[in-house]
C-alpha cells in the first residue's frame, strides 16, 4: 500500500510494476483499476502503450483497454466502479490506482477483487493520493505496517523529483493547510471534528466600513436567511456585517441590503441554484432575478459549487498553508463567528453536518469566498488586484 503526493510518479510506478510482472511471468494476467473506467483510460492507457515496445505486443484492444503480449501475458485496464465484471476471473497482479477515491471499496475488495488473487497467489499494489474519511480504508492502511503479507510506504511530492521546490512553496500559498498536507505531503487528513479548526482570534478584529464596494454572500433559506456583508481591503476580505432574517424571502433580503446601502454598488455571491428556484412563492421570478430587480449584481457559476471546494476555499481564507490569514470578521458578526467555531463534519463523511444550525452562515461566507477566488468579482484575494 502506497500513499503518495501529487506528481510523485504513481502512474509510472504502476505501469513499471505491471510490465515487470507481465514480462517476467509468461501467461500471467495483470489488472489495473482506477476508480472509474474513464479515469483508467485518462491516467494510464496511453502511458502503458508508450512504455511497451511494439514487438512485445501481439494484440491490442483499444475499446476494451487490453494488451496481449507475445509471451501470452495480458494487461487489462478497468474501473473499480465495474469491479463485479471481474467475478470468475483470476489475476497474478492487481493494481488499484487512486483507490482512496473509489466508492464502496470495501464491498468491491471483499466481494470481487480479493478472490482474483486466491488461485494465483497473486500480488496487489494499492497506490493513491490520500483522501476521504472512510475508516475501513484507513484501518487497512494502518494495519499494513504490521499485518503479515502487507507493507506500506508514504512518499511526499518533493521526493518524486517531478515538482520544483519553488512550486511546492507556491502551493503552500495557494492551498489551505489540510489540502496542502493531503495533496503534497501524502498526509491522511481525516475529515472529522471541526470543519474550520484554524479559525481563531487572529481572524476577529473591529472593522469599519471604508466606503468601498459591497460584496455579500447569500444562502437561500427561509429561516434563518443568512447574509454576510464585506469589502475587499488590500489582500483581505473584511466581513463588516451580517444579516439574519427569520421567516423571510429573497425579496425581503434584497430590500434590506438596499436599505442599508442605498447608493452603493452591491455584488452578491449567492447559492448558484438560485438561478432555477425561488424562495418567494408565487412571484414567478427566480431568486437571482429578485436580487437583480433590486439593482444588485449577481455573480454565480451556472453549475453548483462542490461542497468540498466551498470548505477548502473558506479554509484558505481563514489560514492558508503558508500561515497567511486573509479573512477578518468584525466582532459584531456573532452568528458567523459562532458558526465557524462550531460547525463539524457529519459523522463518517467528509462534508459538514447538513443538519447543523451553523451551516447557513458558513455557506453564505463560502459562496463569497468562492466567487472571489474564482474571479467572478472585479477583484481577487491572494494574487493582488485583478480585473475581469
How confident overall, as mean pLDDT?
89
**Number of H- or I-type helical stretches:** 12
- The helical percent reads 25-40%
Number of separate strands: 14
Distance between the termini: 45 Å
The 3D shape can be described as elongated
* SSE string, helices as H and strands as E: EHEHEEEEHEHEHHHEEEHEHEHEHH
Radius of gyration based on Cα positions? 25 Å
Q: Which fold does the CATH topology of the largest domain refer to?
A: Nucleotidyltransferase, domain 5
Low-confidence stretches: 384-388
Largest sheet: 8 strands, mixed
Beta-strand content bin: 15-25%
CATH class of the largest domain: Alpha Beta
- The CATH level-2 architecture of the largest domain is identified as 2-Layer Sandwich
Walkthrough of the structure:
- The chain is of the alpha/beta class.
- It folds into 2 domains: 2-160, Rossmann fold; 201-373, Nucleotidyltransferase, domain 5, CATH 3.30.420.
- Helices cover 32% and strands 19% of the residues.
- The protein has 12 helices and 14 strands.
- It has helices at residues 10-24, 37-51, 105-113, 135-143, 157-160, 165-174, 177-185, 250-260, 287-293, 307-318, 334-342, 359-373; strands at 2-4, 29-34, 57-61, 66-69, 74-79, 93-97, 123-128, 153-155, 214-219, 225-233, 236-245, 266-270, 297-298, 327-329.
- It has an 8-stranded mixed β-sheet. Strands 13-12-9-10-11-14 form a 6-stranded mixed β-sheet.
- Helix 1 packs across helix 2 and helix 10 packs across helix 12.
- The longest helix is centred in the N-terminal third of the chain and has 15 residues, at 10-24.
- The chain is elongated.
- Residues 384-388 have low confidence and may be disordered.
Amino acid at each position: 500500500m502506497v500513499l503518495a503526493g501529487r506528481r510523485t510518479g504513481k502512474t509510472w510506478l504502476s505501469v513499471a510494476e505491471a510490465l515487470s510482472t507481465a514480462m517476467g511471468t509468461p501467461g500471467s494476467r495483470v489488472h489495473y483499476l482506477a476508480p472509474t473506467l474513464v479515469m483508467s483510460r485518462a491516467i494510464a492507457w496511453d502511458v502503458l502503450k508508450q512504455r511497451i515496445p511494439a514487438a512485445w505486443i501481439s494484440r491490442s484492444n483499444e475499446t476494451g483497454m487490453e494488451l496481449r503480449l507475445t509471451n501470452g501475458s495480458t494487461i487489462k485496464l478497468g474501473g473499480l466502479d465495474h469491479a463485479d465484471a471481474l467475478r470468475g476471473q483470476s489475476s497474478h497482479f492487481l493494481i488499484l490506482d487512486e483507490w482512496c477515491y473509489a466508492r464502496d471499496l470495501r464491498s468491491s475488495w471483499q466481494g470481487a477483487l480479493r478472490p482474483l488473487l486466491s488461485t494465483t497467489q497473486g500480488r496487489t499494489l494499492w497506490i493513491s493520493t490520500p483522501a476521504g474519511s472512510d475508516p475501513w480504508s484507513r484501518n487497512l492502511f494502518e494495519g499494513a505496517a504490521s499485518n503479515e503479507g502487507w507493507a506500506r510506504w508514504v512518499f511526499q511530492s518533493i521526493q518524486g523529483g517531478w515538482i520544483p521546490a519553488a512550486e511546492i512553496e507556491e502551493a503552500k500559498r495557494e492551498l489551505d493547510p489540510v489540502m496542502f498536507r493531503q495533496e503534497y505531503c501524502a498526509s491522511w487528513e481525516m475529515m472529522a471534528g471541526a470543519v474550520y479548526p484554524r479559525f481563531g482570534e487572529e481572524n476577529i478584529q473591529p472593522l469599519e466600513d471604508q466606503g468601498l464596494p459591497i460584496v455579500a454572500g447569500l444562502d437561500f433559506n427561509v429561516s434563518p436567511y443568512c447574509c454576510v456583508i464585506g469589502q475587499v481591503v488590500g489582500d483581505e476580505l473584511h466581513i463588516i456585517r451580517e444579516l439574519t432574517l427569520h421567516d423571510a424571502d429573497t425579496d425581503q433580503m434584497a430590500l434590506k441590503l438596499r436599505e442599508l446601502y442605498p447608493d452603493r454598488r452591491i455584488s452578491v455571491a449567492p447559492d448558484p441554484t438560485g438561478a432555477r428556484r425561488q424562495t418567494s412563492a408565487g412571484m414567478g421570478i427566480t431568486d437571482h432575478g429578485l436580487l437583480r430587480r433590486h439593482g444588485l449584481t449577481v455573480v454565480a457559476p451556472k453549475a453548483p459549487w462542490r461542497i468540498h471546494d466551498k470548505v477548502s476555499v473558506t479554509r484558505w481564507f481563514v489560514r492558508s498553508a503558508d500561515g497567511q490569514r486573509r479573512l477578518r470578521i468584525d466582532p459584531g458578526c456573532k452568528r458567523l463567528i459562532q458558526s465557524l467555531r462550531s460547525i463539524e463534519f457529519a459523522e463518517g463523511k467528509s462534508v459538514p453536518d447538513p443538519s447543523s444550525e451553523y451551516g447557513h452562515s458558513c455557506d453564505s461566507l463560502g459562496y463569497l469566498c468562492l466567487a472571489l477566488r474564482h474571479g467572478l468579482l472585479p477583484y481577487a484575494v491572494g494574487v493582488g488586484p485583478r480585473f475581469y
